[in-house]
Each structure stands twice: as C-alpha cells, then as structure tokens.
Amino acid sequence: MNFNLSDEQKQLADAVRRFIDKDYGFEERKKHYESATGYGESAWGALAELGLTALPVPEAQGGFAGKALDMMVVQQELGRGLIVEPYLATVVGAYALGLAGGQDALLEQVAGGELKLAVAFNEPQARYELNHVRVTARDGKLNGRKVVVVHGGQADQLIVSARSSGGDADQDGISLFLVDAKGAGVSIKDYRTIDNLRAADITFQDAPAQLLGEAGKAFAMVEQVADYAAVLLCAEAVGVMDTLNAATLEYAKTRQQFGVPIARFQALQHRMVEMFIHAEQSRSITLLAAARFEEATPEQRRRYVSAAKARVGQAARTVGQEAVQIHGGMGVTNELPAAHMFKRLTMINTTFGDVDHHLGRFAAQPGFQEAA
Q1: Whole-model pTM?
Q2: Model confidence at 366, in pLDDT bands (50, 70, 90)?
Q3: For 118-216, which CATH class?
C-alpha cells in the first residue's frame, strides 16, 4: 500500500496550516475558550469556509466524501493549533449520520457549517465499554444520563446510544437516536475540561428522539463511529506532539544553565530524540489505521484502531511529561503553550478509550492468543 499523501491532501494540509499560523495564535485561542460559548464563532466560520465541515459529508449532500485519511490530514494540522472549536464532535456526528442514512438535510447543514453535532455514547458506569448502556428508549422517548459528552453543550443535535431491549451490557438491543439538544426533556450541564475544551453531562427525561437505522441493531455502528473518532484523535495528538517537540527544542536552545544552552547537554539531547521517535511512531501507526479504515473488516479495524490509540496514548504521555521536565516549572504554567499541549494530550488519551482499554481490546481480538 502507498502511504504517501496525494497532492490534494498536501494542499489541504497546507491550507489548514496557513489558517492556524495566521488566524489562530495562542492569544486568539485563549479568547475563544474564555468566551461565553467556549469557542470562536469566527474560527468556526473559517473552518466552514475552508470546506472542512464539508469534508466528511457525502457528495450528494454537498460534501467532499473525504475518507479517514483525509480527515487525519486535517486533524493533524488542527492539533498543531490546539483548536477548541467543536469540529471533531461535529464531523464524528456527521460520520454517524452518514452510516445511518436518511438524514440528507442535516448533512447539508453540517457541510455548510450551519449545524453542530455531538455523539453521546459514554455513561458513568461504562469505562469505555460501548455496550454498557443504561439510557433507555421506550415509545420514542429517552431516559437516562450520558457523561463527558465532548462539546455536548455546543451541539444543535445529539446522536445518542440508548437501549431498546436487553440487559445493561448486551450488544443486542442498542439503538441510535437523534435528539434535539435544545428540545424538551434534555438537561445539559456544560463545563470546561482541563484542556480548555468543553464537555457536558446530559440527562434525558422523556426526551423525544428519532431512531437512526434499525432498532436494537446499532452496536456495530456505534463501535464504528467510536473507532472513527479514535483515529481522528490519534491524528490530532500527532499534531500536538509535533508542535510540543518543536517548542521544547526551541526552549532548550534558549534556556541557559552553567553558561550554555541546556540543548547542549547530551542527556537532554537523548531525551528529545526519544520524544521525536515517539511522535514519528505515532504518526506511522495512525497513518496505517486511517489508510486501512474503510477497507478493513470489523476485526481488522478494531486491531488497527486499538493499536494506534494505545501506542499514541503511550507516546503522548511520554512526550508531554518529558516536555514539562525539560521546561521546568514553566512547563505547567498557563502562560506557556507547552502546558496547554500537555493537558490536551492527557485528555486525548482518556477520550474514546485510554491505553489500558485499547491494549485489552487489541489482545481480545481473534487470533491474538494463537499468534502469541
């Protein structure tokens, strides 16, 4: 398989990078996350103008039918800017609507940047297990609670997993629903997370809901959507690590100790090389997962995605912690971008499955024990 990016993908990456460099500096980002909405309306409009909101949407609904590899290219560049806009939540939601089918009008609005989405899969007891669903669906009404819904408070529509039948941990009986985030029976507690993005805990009390797809048969679709989100998060983490590595090297070149820049110390040089290796390995395994995403069988997809999420999570933790150590006390101050990168990497690791979860999931795939 050819893993080289196409000319179009390179042009797309360049366009996003120019936007980040020109219009999304560190101080501009701060204004966005400190605003009442938690993101920049102007930045969201710019993402739509660049065609990024239309990228994952099918061509029939005004989009570009971008694949996971195209989205990886975008997410990597957006990671460099640590964007706080609800882009990831919206494109993952659009992917879910595309899988479910029958939502052409909503997808057209997403493509134009007129509609924001969020996926609500996580529950308090679930520990990343997508089949652990206690939100119930009866007669078109949802009851129950979802937690840490990324940008749930900024969404216009929510895509919610709920149980139509079966026990709490059964895969059968799970359905997918579309819920108006501002509608009756929906209570949203919005809050800022440690990386200055937003998340929400959402309670449903007889909330009207529209079924997406077949009732009780949505688990495979929920899992595929979560895997898609995990790949995009890995790509974002690679972008963050690239920027953090560059910032750490630049700081080491200017920080003086014993009359010389600390970048001259061989021990620190070795540590920064290790940071670079972690980022490059993360890039490679994320590229593999993204490039194979659409063509893989469900079992193959689980292996690719979990391998990537586990490896990227390990790398993100190492790169983030080493960067803080090399920066010293400045590495954890809000005045320095490095601290914000470290926090974002920490949150990426805990979103849609952490290292332990994905190592376990990888090991549970058929053939792993025989190969071992």
Answers
A1: 0.96
A2: confident
A3: mainly beta
